Amino acid sequence: MAVWLLWGLLAAVLVFAVCVRLAPSDPARWHVAPAAEGPSGTVSAGEGWASLRLEAGDARALLARLDAIAIASPRTTRLAGSVEAGRITWITRSALWGFPDYTTAEARADGLYLYARLRFGRGDMGVNATRLRDWQAALTGG
User: What b/e sequence results for 116-133 when a residue is b if at least 16 CB atoms lie within 10 Å of its CB, and e otherwise?
Assistant: First the structure.
């Protein structure tokens, strides 16, 4: 009996892992204009989200640099957008389970706005804020 329960638990875990990895990502839901809270250059974070606004003379050029940084990041792919469109959304997946986090950046007249958020669960253990800080450091060379 215990063996069957163990096999059932293992099957449930595998089904969960497959569902998380194969869940579709709808650009209409995730590729939306980001809002940034707080002062420029400072990451603001809440439960499952983080935002950042960077002042820039040429926000599109900064977005192009950020796109290269994001694509070079582990387990990160572009979901929608382009530098030419002025907005890009990336998906970054966690290493073990493949949980997707979405980060959107938009070039505006007053700077570059970034918004990172999780898809599943409530808290992200600071992962989205850390990603924004890492990308910010790569952009500024710091």
Answer: bbbbeeeebeebbbebbb
pLDDT value at 3 more than 80 = yes
Q: pLDDT by residue (tens digit) across 6-41?
A: 898 888 888 887 887 888 999 999 999 998 778 889
The CATH class, in words, for 25-140 is alpha beta
**Which amino acid, one-letter code, is at 90?**
W
For the segment 114-130, what is each residue's pLDDT rounded down to a tens digit? 999 999 988 899 999 99
| Domains in the chain: boundaries | 25-140
Q: What is the 3-state secondary structure (H, E, C) of 24-84?
A: CCCHHHHCCCCCCCCCCCCCEEECCEEEEEECCCCHHHHHHHHHHHHHHCCCEEEEEEECC
**How many angstroms separate the CA atoms of 28 and 33, rounded?**
11
